[in-house]
User: Fold these one by one.
Assistant:
Number 1:
Amino acid sequence: MKPTRAQLDELLKIVAATEAREIDCEEFLARVCPVLDALEPGQEVPPELGLISQHLEVCGECREEFDALVDLRLQGGDES
């Protein structure tokens, strides 16, 4: 099956965002909770948090997880 133009564009975007030092999904998940705690509602991850921001760019699964955690936090789900 031949890839669609949209699939190729997404692949090129990911390749362009590739860095010499990257974190994997496990390391991302270990680092993301403190980042979420520091963010104001609606705020994106600042670029200065490079490895986390970069991973969000290239990993759709972690981006979905991150967005779900942000939504949960905004709904008050972070109460302990």
Note: The mean pLDDT is 79.
Number 2:
Amino acid sequence: MGDPITLLLLGGMLLVFWLFIIRPQSKQAKQQAEFQNQLAKGDRVVTTGGIHGKVVKADTEGSSILLEIDTNTRIRIERSAISMDLTKAAYGIKKEEKKEEKKEEDK
């Protein structure tokens, strides 16, 4: 039906496409979803629109959070509007490091 070399090249191209494009993208999407689900009170975040703020209330059941952007100024936004990449770029603190800092402060 088809030349074996052609089929082998096509299969190789599909493998490379999966390894370098599809797999990393799905891994990053999974990390983003995990980051958004682990948001907790006191976390400093940046929205996809560029708004910086501190999480005041994170509903565990709901998909929205209450974000304080200034003194006595709070907005309710969807968790999906929080950007992991922008938050890391702006604050540069990983979630695990922040938890360790809080534990040290409590002692």
Note: The chain has a mean pLDDT of 83.
Number 3:
Amino acid sequence: MSMGVTARRALALSFTFGAAVSMTTTANAQVLDTSYRVETTAHTFTTLHSASVGRHGDDVIFFCGLSGMALHAIIAPAGTLAFPTEAFNRTIYVYDESTETLYSGGISHLSDPVRRALTVTNAPYIEYGDNLYIYGGYGPYLDDSDWDTRGTVTTIDLAMVATAIKNAQPVPEAAFTVEASPEGQVAGAHIVLLDDRWILVGGSDFKGDYLQNPGYQPWQNVYSLEQHIFDPMVSVAIPVESYFDSKGQALQRRDMNITPATLPAAGGGVAPGYVIQGGVFNAVFPWDFPVTYCEGDPAPAYDEAIYQRLNQYDGPRASFYSAALDENRFALFSGISSHVHDGAGGYTFDFLVPWSDEITELRMIGGVWQTTPDANDVFADVIDNVVGAMPNPTSNVELLLNPKLPTNSSHQVMLDEMPPAEVLLGRLYGGLKAAMPAQEPPTFSSNQIMEIYVTVGVEGDVDRDGTVNSTDLATLIGFWGSGNTVCDLDCDGIVGASDLATLLGFWFN
């Protein structure tokens, strides 16, 4: 059957079904299972990890981080540096996703405060409006004599930076504003949006080099044990609300997996918040119980009887929410784990903290973790649902979401509004990779660009009843020409002939 005939028959059907067709929204009818596929593209990036990233249109802009360096050394010969100063990235990269072209520009012409703020790694950052805000970060002095964590927040005009670099011009000083921010003096922390505010969580103030080399100050690592809420309408440097974790159970964490979440609010309904899935360190091991916080709560909450076994260390991740099911779903795309999975649902603790290539999902329904009792019925294990594997164990790189996906104001992907077709979830640029899942494998800084695809539900099943049939066809025709995201199977912004062809392909296959 030709596409022309198919399209004409579909348009004829629209006279029968019309626009009166409505989407199924009842929780019992929703089929929202998720599956993932990972693809390494033919394009290359640069060997960069632990960077701070913003987006301006099709341009993805990278600051800070470490270049060409594998995982830092912990035990090494005398005179070795864990964080050699030459490994700190001093280049701004712009990757144009529309042309698959990489541009770059230096920072040596900028003022000392700006260069100091941009020569760091593991800096927490947040994009809001047209600006990127980078807090703290750990890096060398400008004369390379020592290392510390910055006590600043840097506001960056992304459009100004991208325009200059793509035109091979020096990035203007006016694109950067550096302010003192004592609460922002952390590295390894993360920031989560709370609607029109953001929350800076955890991290530590790290000074010196990890290996205590002669001639340098002994290293110090002081956890902040804090979270700070910033309101950009008030100040991006001074928080409007802060919390100190006096017990050190919830927020003695850095290099963590943390994702936005939609959680039950104290006054009823739901509100934005976050979930921490792991992080380091609990003594010398990763934390293995998650933490939750909802905006308005007096403190982050945790339950030491609930255990997470896999992917506790900072790695690619995504957060989904279904309002119909009141479910948060967190996807963790490999990393470093406290346990080894035997492939049959069993876990073995490993004090060497092995790298993992597994993709896992954790779920909360109604704000309650989905768990299973352990063998002795003493603790409850969060269900680390293994749903796939990465080509290599990966960490220290963010999953940059596809901007065409339906998201809420906290950047959670809205499951109820996702099309039932394989679509691009997001991209990974560079990052740390391990050669294999193992206790202490060789690691390297990757220059790969990887794409992660997600499928929600049964492909073509736009009414979410588990099958593809005439009802789905009628539903799609009912939304013909609209921007309905569920029926927009190719995510081009409008329901049309290509979506019809996609649905029919699923139906007949």
Note: Helices lie at 3-17, 112-118, 158-166, 470-478, 497-508.
Number 4:
Amino acid sequence: MKALSIRNLPDEVYEALKIMAATNHRSMQEQVRCMIEREARLAAGSGLAEARAWRVRLTGRSLGDTVEDVRQDRAR
């Protein structure tokens, strides 16, 4: 497993991390690791990228009027 050292971290950021860690009942190292892991997962599997891909796939397709379809179904 790799290690990472962060230099020149502003005091206010350090204090904010310290508070976040205490709030989440974690050590500072564990808190920072969780934050980095979460950001890496979000960057790798971005929901926005997936939404864009679906938008491209559906471009030009006629999807109909769902609201009108439901109304017609209820009227039967």
Note: Residues 11-60 form one domain.
